[in-house]
Amino acid sequence: MPRLRALLLSLSLATCALPQPPPTPPTPVPVAAPRLYAVRLTSGPAWDSSKSPNAQAGMAEHSANIARLRRAGTLVHGARFGELGLLVLRLPDEPAVHAALAPDPTIATGVFKIQIDVYTPFAHGTTAYLVTPEAVVLRAYLDAFNRHDPAAVAATLSPAVKWFSLSSDQLSTDGEGRDAVHTWLTGYFKSLPDVRSEISDLTQNGPYLSFRERASWTAKDGTRRSQQSLGTAEIRENLLARIWYFPAVKDPTLPK
């Protein structure tokens, strides 16, 4: 019996020492990918034609709900055209769209009727066309560049203008001084006679303008080349004082 107890004890200890199988990971809960939905708003049965749009019942709450959706990142775009309103929302499904609009009393009470459709954009641009003095300077610089006019480009620059390039954690100075830029551009336009540049996604914070720039040209081997870069320009006293560029990325649709 002592030997049997010892054998059973050793087997028990051996069993305890065996590695335990890893726990089964929980099954992930599928999350619907966000989609874009267009919500068209038209006047409903409770619309009071004797009042202006802003005087309709519930308009303050209507505007507050739109502001809430914008802060949450749900609202992609909002607009009015003709007698219609449009909200483009980024949400996983149509029930989520209805839930996002539920706090809006103008919809619940019938001031507005809504129609919800899946929104599938096929071309992208920008409606943020800034008309600030700083944006005017940047566009004047771009227009002079595309005309290949070094003197006109120089007229938009501060005498002490600086060009910077950012690469990883390195910052390098590519150009410094209005006169030096004028001289460099004269040779640059001769070597690339059809180079052009365009900007999009223009946003502003004080004197700083951030944008995406796309440059295109014909290489010496006759192939078309194009690349894009993110940049930030600093405008002071109606002149371009400094500009920073992140690394350029070649357009994937063109030859490498």
Strand and helix map with partners:
Elements lengths: L1 H16 L17 E9 L15 H13 L3 E7 L2 E8 L2 H8 L3 H4 L3 E7 L14 H14 L3 H6 L1 E11 L2 E7 L1 H14 L4 E10 L2 E11 L5 E13 L2 E7 L3 E2 L6
Parallel strand pairs: 5-10
Antiparallel strand pairs: 1-3, 1-4, 2-3, 5-6, 7-8, 8-9, 9-10, 9-11
Key phrases:
36% strand, 4-stranded antiparallel β-sheet, single chain, Nuclear Transport Factor 2, Chain: A, 256 residues, extended, 7-stranded mixed β-sheet, 11 strands, 29% helix, Alpha-Beta Plaits, alpha+beta
Brief summary:
By secondary structure, the chain is an alpha+beta fold.
Content of β-strand: 35-45%
Q: Which structural category do the helix and sheet elements fall into?
A: alpha+beta
- CATH domain fold name of the largest domain: Nuclear Transport Factor 2, Chain: A
How many domain modules? 2
Secondary structure tally, helices: 7
State the name of the first-level CATH class of the largest domain: Alpha Beta
Rg over alpha carbons: 30 Å
Overall spatial form: extended
Oligomeric description of these chains = single chain
How much helix, percentage-wise, in residues? 25-40%
Provide mean pLDDT, rounded.
86
**Low-confidence residue ranges:** 6-11
**Helix-strand string:** HEHEEHHEHHEEHEEEEE
Counting DSSP E segments of at least 2 residues, the number of strands comes to: 11
CATH architecture descriptor text of the largest domain = Roll
> Mind describing the biggest β-sheet?
7 strands, mixed
